[in-house]
Amino acid sequence: MKATVAANSTRNVEAQAEGIRPTLVQHIPFAVWLIVPAEIVLLSVVVFPTLMSLWLSLTSWTPTSGVNWWQAEFQWLANYVQLLFGDERFRAALLRTLLIVVVGVAAEISIGLSLALLFFDDFPWKKIAISAIILPMMIVPVDAANAFFMLFRDVGPVNQLVRILVGHPVRFAWLSDSNLAIVPILLVEIWQWTPLMFLMLLTGLMALPQNQLRAAVALGASRWQLFRRIILPLIAPVVVLSLVIRSVEIFKIFDPVYILTRGGPGTSTETLSMWMYDNGFVYFRIAYVAAAGFLVLLVVLAYVLLILRPLSRRTAAER
Amino acid sequence: MRKESKRSTVVPEHTVSRGDMLDRRTFIKRTTKGAAAVAASTAVGGMPWVTSAMAAVSQDTPDARAIAGAKALLGRRQVRQLTILEPSGSLGDIVPVAKEWTRLTGVEIKYIEVPLLEIAQRVLQEAVARTGAWDLALPASFALPDIAESGVVVDLTDLAQKYRPDDGVAGCQMLYPIANYYKGRLYGFGTDGDTYMMFYRKDLLEDAQEQTRFQQEHGYKLAIPETWEELDAQVKYFHRPDKNLYGGALFRSRGFIAWEWNIRFHGKGRWLFDDNMKPQINSEAGVKAAEEMLAITKYLDPGARSNGLFENFEAYGSGRSYCNIGWGGSQKYFWDPKKSKVYGKLAWGMAPGGKVNGKKFYAPYFNWGWNYVVNRYSRAPELAYLFAQFAYSPKMSTQAVRFRGGYFDPFRTCHYTDPVIREIYGDGFLAVHRQSMTHNFPDLYLKGHGEYWDVLDANLQSADVGKKTPKQALDETAAAWEKITNRVGREKQIAQWRFVKAHYPPELAKILA
Q1: Is the minimum CB–CB distance between A242 and chain B shorter than 8 Å?
Q2: Of A66, A69, A283, the CB nearest to B149
Q3: Can you state the percent helix, strand and coil of chain A, rounding each to 5?
Q4: On the CB side of A121, how many CA atoms lie within 13 Å of its CA?
Q5: What number is the ipTM of this complex?
Q6: Domain A80-318 CATH assignment equals 1.20.1440.230
Q7: Which of B156, B219, B492, B508 has the fewest CB atoms lying closer than 10 Å?
Q8: What tens digit of pLDDT does each residue of B313-360 get?
Q9: Domain B16-193+369-439: which CATH class?
Q10: Contact B465/A176, CB-based, under 8 Å?
């Protein structure tokens, strides 16, 4: 019945369109017409803004100029050149963000994998323990950052704890020392998002072929051998995928920076997102930020391809 | 303090009648000067409605005219609702006014609340989106130049000529009208008297033993400081961390640190720019101001470098610091015995200045404020204007300022005599606040304010934590300011800078070089 209706409507569409452009309609299958609305939506929310950003990145437009964005002064690659060769603050923010990505992801994967291995075996209250571990990632990032702000204030509990541990008053300027301020930012990020890493890796472990593991145990493999020779190679794709997901996310780190330090002291904790926020929404340099956005896209793309490289090699070898 | 002021400051002692005359006439005079400067450079006119403001005071009032105007408009139009884009936390101040407006006109007010620091962005989004989703907005006063240049808000000059917002306000003049203008044209109505003020611990300041000891150590009397030199001496003197007392809770945090430096810099007797918009901030005076400011950081509350506004309230309200800096909103917190341990123990002063040619002077500073602006893409811009005039009127603005939990502070002369406002702020504070509002120098009302200020702020904080020397920080800031000026357009900036300069308090303008 459904097939008949579909066939009829296909003929109707074709018949109606025949009078206008018969060759075009004949060459486009009915199934393609069905996805046209979805494609239009996709074009308007992804492709159009991207093209608009690309155009803006080649202009000097700001919303405060009083000029329509499509009439903005075209200046070729001036924004890109300025960003790459004349904007030290941008370059510093880029390097700082890369550092946060590397340190943050390394910590998250280490802790997440350790926890996942711990939870690989059964033990009482396991489900409750898992629920407790994944709680942080359910908290709104701004709230998590705010909690860390309270903890790391000069007169906050962290310094009180340090005081109790060392036995005399100690006051670390966690949020206002340019060398220390990155620590609370990293900690909040690691605390909140390690659970995601744990969850992904635990899922990967649970999907391992049990026969191989049991066979290895039966043949006398030690725990380390089991991990090194069997588990790690088998979950490598999951690890790489987790790395990619978290790296891309940390590249966009904003909430903890904004809440804890606003990029300060000075610009010592300014990340790319914070830099973009300031330039876009405080300085209103939208065109300049659009250019920065494309540069960052290229950097992230290169980074992701680099991480995916071993996986691609392995896939190619397996083929 | 009053005695001291009479003796040695160049800021005239403020009295009610003097203040009223000064504000109105001086403003008109200065505006004429500023507008002429602007007109010469940009061929933009002055403020024609000012002439009508000088006319004899009639029986009708701005709020009554706004209501009558709205009723007349509503006879012809179908709009029965206005939407206000407002910063979070301001609803308490706006709602009483809006309710009265709805009662009198039948026009409902809807609200779109956005985070406090994001309202300018949201207003500017309208330059692209052109939705007309809101009719009025309440951005910070310092964002007005950017917003006006974007063309997203209505130039209200002609509407003001028609509805005369400043006629019939005898005894209730606006004390700080410059923030309503950009290049001599009216773009907004101020709603908040955000003058920056000093808070001192009166119990320590007036303690006989402290007075004697201080006098012995410094050779002059312990009193409300008139200069930063005196203030710094007091901060050091009262810094007793072993007794859980710090010299001050002044801000050293991002987003705040540049304001104090700006006052200190003015205290050294210099303009931020010369007449060609070349920055003077990295001059000897600027570097000295920065060095002195950073030298007292170690005597401040331990959270000084990370405290935001509310952490500052909490820190000073706990009673662990001798002095603090802040706005009327700070006073509302400190003057609430349920929240604050310094209730009843405070003395207030205008922001200190300096000493030039042997004369001491204060340098009070207006550094925030909020302005009602009207969306160019509103379906009812005239009606929206009328609401803004209604809210700005003496009667309704008093209602707004009365809200204890809000942050609109007194900005009209009659606010200072309103019994509810007096109870909320306390008479001692209000006397100094009024004096400060009357004599404060304006914020940097230039296009690109956000960028100018943020660069300064970031560099000063870098200097504060030892990442840069004060000279290096200010040199880098000056270079960045030059780039911003060139990018925005030097001639354009020069014209507005002249306008801003023309509205400096004359007694301070005479000193600045």
Answers
A1: no
A2: A66
A3: 75, 0, 25
A4: 4
A5: 0.77
A6: no
A7: B219
A8: 999 999 999 999 999 999 999 999 999 999 999 999 999 999 998 999
A9: alpha beta
A10: yes
